[in-house]
Design goal:
Elements (H helix, E strand, L loop, with lengths): L2 H62 L2
Keywords: Coiled coil
């Protein structure tokens, strides 16, 4: 192999390595985004539960005052 071919192969290997690392980081980013979405959905569900509980408490307070 001449010098050009060696450098070409080294460059190709570096590019492949960088692309692999990029893909790994994209996968991690996707997983974190999914976790954030799940956390948001759970937070909304909890807020709805809290609102419903507060409604029940207010209902019982009104009934007890009569």
């Amino acid at each position: 192999m001449n010098r050009y071919e060696v450098r070409k192969e080294e460059t190709k290997q570096r590019i492949n390595s960088l692309e692999k690392r990029r893909d790994e980081l994209y996968d991690q980013t996707g997983k974190i985004e999914d976790e954030i979405i799940d956390m948001g959905e759970k937070a909304i569900e909890r807020q709805e539960t809290l609102v419903n509980l507060k409604k029940k408490v207010m209902f019982w307070i009104l009934i007890c005052n009569f």
